[in-house]
Known about the structure:
The chain is 49% helix and 9% strand.
Amino acid sequence: MRNMIAAALLLAAGPALAQPVAAPAAEAPKGPHVLDPLPYGFDALAPVIDAETMRLHWGAHHRAYVDNLNRAVAADPALAKLSLEALMARMSTLPKAIRDNGGGHWNHRFFWSLMAPPGTGGQPSPALLAAITRDFGSLPALRRQFEEAGLRQFGSGWVWLIVRADGRLAITTTPNQDNPLMDLAEVKGRPILGNDVWEHAYYLSYRNRRGEYLQKWWDVVNWKEVSLLFESARAGQ
Ligand code: MN3
């Protein structure tokens, strides 16, 4: 009986009330920034990074940075014309939404590019290994310092290996989605390696064990790509 009354009321109210009341979310502009496909399958980095983490990290987190960046630049044609790198270089003058989402887009695009399935990433080139030995003592010493820096980063952020303006390698960390290309970064340089230490990057497999994630992550580092990035950073000086 009660159901019949409800149905009658719904009919009497007309079709407008019978529809879901929530308006659909405004769709993000399709550009100028785009989410490229991953260079490998969701399960390619397992067991170091599990498929579900990759699916969410790329398909939800990275996608949201791209969508929100496109929303943020849509209002200003001068900003919409700038490349992602050009945005980084003048970040101190831009709105927070561009810092968070432009940084998020740059950082994740970079991150996907420098990983490869376990055991396929090769070794640092002789030139990169020579620079690592000069600036850290050895590759194991670099790895240890990088892990320690990643572990020390309080809250969400990134740990980076950069080539500084003077050509030396350095390890640095940034909070949130900042990176060392931003003019406002405390330590500036060209990243050649970076690890995401936001909990969304590791929590499904590693829970709160960030140190274990940082250690295992070396198995998926694509040293061939890192070596190429080192060469182009050096050439750009
Ligand atoms: Mn992330």
